[in-house]
């Protein structure tokens, strides 16, 4: 697969992820909150903080998608192994950790309040798992891209 074709496919995946992220933040998240929180008299006050939480956790997600788009653009122009891309991957790793910390805080809050909805717990744990996996892999990729960039710079200097 050529770099431009790979870049186009990766950008299409980023657009699809962005679409589903927007769908989650704008429609699915508030609807889930409406179904679970507004039906209960005790939990109605949690609806607005729940929706705000969903929107706040969308911020690191969309920043990571924008950084991923920039990396894909660099891949398309045959500049995949650069220090700039290694730094972007490291930032994505940190954003994923931030996302995980936000969901750990939400899980702790759920346990303190005592509103154990298994669906919400399952989704939060799933998001937490994926944030850890993404953080580890982007950190590893950042290290590899940085090393490849250093090797490329050394080769450019010797030729």
Provide the β-strand percentage band.
under 5%
The succession of helices and strands, N to C, reads HHHH
In total, the number of domains comes to: 1
Q: Which structural class do you get from the secondary structure elements?
A: mainly alpha
Describe this structure in words.
By secondary structure, the chain is an all-alpha fold. The chain has one domain. The chain has helices spanning 3-37, 47-76, 83-113, 118-158. It is elongated and about 70 Å long. The two termini are 27 Å apart. The model has no long low-confidence stretch (mean pLDDT 89).
Question: What labels describe this entry?
Answer:
159 residues, mainly alpha, membrane, transmembrane helix, transmembrane, DUF2975 domain-containing protein, DUF2975
Summarize the structure.
This protein has helices at residues 3-37, 47-76, 83-113, 118-158.
């Amino acid at each position: 697969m050529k770099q431009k074709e790979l870049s186009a496919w990766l950008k299409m995946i980023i657009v699809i992820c962005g679409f589903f992220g927007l769908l989650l933040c704008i429609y699915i998240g508030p609807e889930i909150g409406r179904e679970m929180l507004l039906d209960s008299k005790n939990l109605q006050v949690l609806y607005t903080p729940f929706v705000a939480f969903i929107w706040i956790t969308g911020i690191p997600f969309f920043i990571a998608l924008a950084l991923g788009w920039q990396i894909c653009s660099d891949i398309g122009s045959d500049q995949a192994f650069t220090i700039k891309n290694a730094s972007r991957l490291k930032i994505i790793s940190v954003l994923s950790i931030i996302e995980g910390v936000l969901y750990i805080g939400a899980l702790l809050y759920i346990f303190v309040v005592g509103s154990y909805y298994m669906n919400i717990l399952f989704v939060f744990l799933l998001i937490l798992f994926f944030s850890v996996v993404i953080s580890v892999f982007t950190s590893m990729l950042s290290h590899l891209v940085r090393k490849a960039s250093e090797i490329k710079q050394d080769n450019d200097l010797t030729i």
